[in-house]
Write a structure and sequence with these properties.
Elements: E1 25-28, H1 29-37, H2 39-46, H3 59-78, H4 83-87, E2 92-94, H5 100-104, E3 110-114, E4 119-123, E5 127-131, E6 136-144, H6 157-173, E7 181-189, E8 202-210, H7 216-228, H8 239-259
Parallel strand pairs: 1-4, 6-7
Antiparallel strand pairs: 2-5, 3-4, 5-6, 7-8
Helix pairs in contact: 1-2
Length: 261
C-alpha cells in the first residue's frame, strides 16, 4: 500500500518577533492568553512561526455576536438602555463613540504601546457601555450550550476574565475613564426543547465581573523576556506539548526498531 502524501508544512514568515528589529512587536490579547496557557506554545508561535493546530471556527458563536451587536446598536442610536440592562438594574446605556467600529475590528481593535517592553498591545472588543458617572464599562458577548448555571471560575472562565481585564487596561491606557465593573452577556442554547424546528433558542444572562488589571504589565515584561530567550520547556498540563513529545517518542522508538532488522 502506498504511503499517504503529507502536505508540506512551512513556518509562518510574517508577524514573528525579530530581536534585531527596532519596531514595536504587535501582540494581541489572544496571544497574551496563549502565553498564560503555555509559554512554549507561545514561543513556537510568536518567535518561530509554528502555530498550534487551528480549532474549528465557532461560526454559531460569531452569528450570536453579530446579532447582539446589531441589537445593542439599535438602542445605542436611540441613546437608551437595552431591556436586558433594565432587567438587571444596570444604570448605563450602550456607549456612542466614533471609534467603536475600529475597536470591534479584529485587525485593529483598541491599541496601546507598552513602551517599557516595546510591545504594541491590541484587542477587539464586542461592546462598551457608559454608566451615569461617565465611566466606560467593557462588555463581552459569549455563547454556549450547557445545563446549569454559568460558572466563571471553571472551563474558559479564567481566560474570559483575563480578556475583560486586558480590554479594561487598554481603554485606560487610551485615556478613558473605565469602571472596574464589566459585564458578560452570556447566551445559553436550550437543548431541552422537544424538537429543533429550524431554530435554536437561547436564555440570556448578564454576568457582572469586577476586573483587576494590575497583573498585565508584569506579564508583558515576562512575555518580552520569553521572546528574547530560548525555547521554554514543555508545560506539564499542555495537551499540545504532550502530543508533540508523545508522538516524537513513538516515532523515535519505531525508527530504532526498524534499524534492528
Amino acid at each position: 500500500m502506498p504511503q499517504a502524501e503529507f502536505k508540506q508544512y512551512s513556518t509562518r514568515k510574517r508577524n514573528i518577533f525579530d530581536p534585531e528589529s527596532n519596531d514595536p512587536f504587535k501582540i494581541s490579547r489572544s496571544k497574551i492568553d496563549l502565553y498564560f496557557q503555555c509559554p512554549r506554545c507561545f514561543y513556537l508561535d510568536q518567535r518561530l512561526g509554528v502555530k498550534r493546530p487551528q480549532m474549528p471556527a465557532f461560526t454559531l458563536n460569531n452569528a450570536v455576536d453579530a446579532l447582539l451587536k446589531k441589537e445593542f446598536d439599535i438602542h445605542r442610536v436611540k441613546g437608551k438602555a437595552h431591556p436586558l440592562m433594565d432587567r438587571y438594574g444596570i444604570l448605563a446605556v450602550p456607549a456612542e463613540h466614533p471609534d467603536l467600529n475600529r475597536w470591534r475590528d479584529n485587525f485593529n481593535g483598541i491599541q496601546t504601546l507598552f513602551a517599557p517592553a516595546h510591545l504594541l498591545v491590541f484587542g477587539a472588543i464586542d461592546d462598551v457601555w457608559v454608566n451615569k458617572n461617565g465611566e466606560f464599562m467593557i462588555v463581552d458577548y459569549k455563547a454556549t450550550s450547557k445545563r446549569g448555571a454559568i460558572n466563571m471560575d471553571e472551563g474558559w472562565g479564567p481566560s474570559y476574565r483575563r480578556q475583560m481585564e486586558i480590554y479594561q487596561w487598554l481603554f485606560r491606557k487610551n485615556g478613558f475613564n473605565v469602571s472596574s465593573l464589566g459585564y458578560f452577556v452570556y447566551c445559553n442554547g436550550d437543548k431541552d426543547k422537544e424538537a429543533f424546528d429550524g431554530k435554536l433558542e437561547f436564555s440570556v444572562e448578564v454576568i457582572s465581573y469586577d476586573g483587576d488589571d494590575s497583573w498585565i504589565e508584569g506579564v508583558l515584561h515576562s512575555i518580552k523576556k520569553c521572546l528574547l530567550g530560548e525555547l521554554p520547556p514543555q508545560k506539564n498540563d499542555c495537551e499540545y506539548c504532550a502530543y508533540r513529545f508523545g508522538a516524537q517518542e513513538i516515532e523515535a522508538k519505531k525508527a530504532s526498531q526498524k534499524k534492528l532488522f
